Amino acid sequence: MARFRVTGTGVMARMLRQQCVRYQTTRVRSICTSPTCHQASSTAPPFQDEPLGPQMISGLTLPGPKVKQGLEKLDRVYDTCSSTLLVDYDKSYGNYLVDADGNRYLDMFAQIASIPLGYNYPRLVQAAQSGEMVRAIVSRPALGSFPPTDYADLLASGILKAAPMGLDRVFTATAGSDANETAYKAACIWKGTQERGGRDFSHEELQSVMENQAPGAKNYSILSFIKGFHGRLFGSLSTTRSKPIHKLDIPAFDWPVAPFPELKYPLHEHETENRTEEERCLRETEAAIDAAKSPVAAIVVEPVQSEGGDNHATPFFFQGLRALAKRKNVLMIVDEVQTGVGATGKMWAHQHWDLETPPDMVTFSKKAQAAGFYYGNEALRPDKAYRQFNTWMGDPVRALLFRAIYQDIERDGLIDNTAKVGEYIFEHLESLVARFPQLMQNLRGKGCGTFIAWDSPRRDDILALAKTKGVFMGGCGAAAIRLRPMLIFQQHHADIFLSVLEDVLKELS
């Protein structure tokens, strides 16, 4: 196995060289000695033979020839406008992603925050080879009409076992946008049922709805926030406000929008200004509800506005939002598609808020590898068939994967690990901010696990140069760099990342 050669003379580089020596001398090898074999024994820790670091092909300009050729071939039959790499998933392993040319990157982006346990995770491979999985793949059920005999047990042992406190029911879906849209539908059905006072649909409602007219077609709305992102389907796209490119030419609902707090960092140095800003946003949210052209059925909010620039708010804001929703008799939907499943140092990011009552619905996807929304109120379950329905209504394959993921998160204490590694990264990033203030600004995410970001006027240059050195990060918003490593990310991975980032900042200074 090729060794990782550490370059640079800074403190982080020296720490990394020491760490690599310790890691090389203490790691336990797998019973499989082939360099391409990653099979672990049932008792061995996963990724014991993970590469020691990135490895870039000398003299190769990115993208390399095989990546370019592969993307050109694919582009003839498939849209590659947004493709940044052509990945060899057979060779990708653990925290490392390998491209078609053989370049190996430390993956700090994890497929847009959606890989929980690394590439080719041995225990997920075992789950994928189980009889349950084979049956679910070969005989995929239309869950709404023909659920399998063991679906209740599967949900109870996985998706519902991971449920946020107070939310003991779930509607399963296929993707994050789908999860949000079905939550929106649940909110509108709930509001319509309230307004009818429990009576059945009238003849006029049944007739008018077929022409998309009132009173059958309700004119309800979902309030979202400036710079929020909730998906790209028609309903979810109307609540997405992060980038114009997502929405151009697409018809949209005229739904209300409110400002999300624009905080100053470090938070502890700007408590007074930030409290004033959050109070302002709460007042404007209430005003937006009152002035909405269409009655608001629900508020949807992200714990961290991930695509819109990794924008944070304090628990005070979210507590106020919860109280406001209850006072106005609208539902509160927390979109945990990107923040959920451990990345913030808690299973669900809204657990950081210490709410007196849980949100009405929490949507999930990405790291769960499944999708849907949790809820607790029985009134959010439709009272008639086919009101919340599609052919698949989720997928037992994904439910099985989430069960295996959650079991390993619990078994290996990966959420606590993420919290500790996040503290370690943040502490060292603070020192880099002090040294390179012109390149690193508004560092945020303290106490939020590895869900860390900062702004830079040279964001794209930093991302591109780090990539040539074998570290793959993501950007968001206008100038933000965001970290989205996997839950198996360890301190020695952090040292590699910090060493590379230090070298990049030096070169760009």
UniProtKB/TrEMBL annotation:
Its cofactor is pyridoxal 5'-phosphate. It comes from Coniochaeta pulveracea. One of its GO terms (cellular component) is mitochondrion. It catalyses: 4-aminobutanoate + 2-oxoglutarate = succinate semialdehyde + L-glutamate. It holds the Pfam family Aminotran_3. Its EC number is 2.6.1.19. This is 4-aminobutyrate aminotransferase. NCBIfam families: GABAtrns_euk. One of its GO terms (biological process) is gamma-aminobutyric acid catabolic process. The gene is UGA1_2. GO terms for molecular function: 4-aminobutyrate:2-oxoglutarate transaminase activity; pyridoxal phosphate binding. CDD domains: OAT_like (cd00610). Belongs to the class-III pyridoxal-phosphate-dependent aminotransferase family. It comes from the Eukaryota.
